[in-house]
Write a structure and sequence with these properties.
The protein is an alpha+beta fold. It has four helices and eight strands; from the N terminus they run βααβββαββββα.
C-alpha cells in the first residue's frame, strides 16, 4: 500500500482545501508534475535540511526496519520548496513524528491520502512515541472520495489548463 504525504514552505493554510491547493501549487512550480510550468527544481536549503533530518531518523534503506518508505529513493521526492515522499502504508507513529519534524523546520504538512492538513496539535505523545490523531486515508492506490477543488485551484492560480495531475517520472495520477 502506498501513502503519500507532502511538506512545503509557506504560511499556514486556513483549511484542508487551501492546504491542498497550496501544496499542489508548490508541486507544480517545483516541477513535480508532468506538464508542470518548470522542470524539476533542486530542493531549497531548508528542504534539504528537513529531508536530511527525516532520512536520518527514517533511513531510505528498505532493509532497515525503521524505513517507512515505499522506495529507496525517498530523497528524490524533494524539489524546490517541497518534499512529497511515498510511505509504505499509513503509520500513525511515523506520520506523527514527520509532522513534528516538519513543525521544527517551519514546514506545512498535508496528508494526501486522508486529504487533511496535519498540525502539531494533531500529534499526541503515546507510550512509544508521537502518534498522529484523527482520520487517516486509504492509500494512493485507493484514495478516498474527496470533493476538493485544491488541485484545480492551484492550476488556476498558475494559469494552467485543467487536466489530470501526473507526478513526473511516475506516470501515475496524484490523489
Amino acid at each position: 500500500m502506498r501513502y503519500r504525504i507532502g511538506f512545503w514552505i509557506g504560511p499556514a493554510p486556513v483549511d484542508d482545501e487551501s492546504a491542498c491547493a497550496d501544496l499542489h501549487m508548490h508541486l507544480h512550480t517545483a516541477g513535480q508534475f508532468v506538464g508542470s510550468p518548470t522542470p524539476p527544481l533542486p530542493p531549497t536549503p531548508r528542504i534539504v535540511r528537513f529531508t536530511a533530518d527525516v532520512l536520518e531518523e527514517f533511513p531510505a534503506d528498505l532493509a532497515d526496519p525503521r524505513s517507512p518508505w515505499r522506495d529507496a529513493d525517498a530523497a528524490e521526492a524533494a524539489h524546490g520548496q517541497t518534499f512529497a515522499p511515498v510511505l509504505f502504508g499509513p503509520d500513525r507513529k511515523v506520520i506523527g513524528r514527520l509532522t513534528q519534524l516538519a513543525h521544527e523546520h517551519g514546514l506545512q504538512t498535508f496528508d494526501l491520502a486522508a486529504h487533511r492538513l496535519l498540525r502539531l496539535e494533531d500529534v499526541v505523545e503515546w507510550e512509544d512515541g508521537p502518534w498522529i490523531t484523527g482520520p487517516l486515508g486509504g492509500s494512493w492506490d485507493e484514495p478516498e472520495a474527496f470533493a476538493c477543488r485544491g488541485p484545480e485551484i492551484a492550476r488556476e492560480r498558475l494559469g494552467l489548463t485543467p487536466s489530470a495531475h501526473v507526478l513526473a517520472g511516475t506516470g501515475e495520477d496524484s490523489p
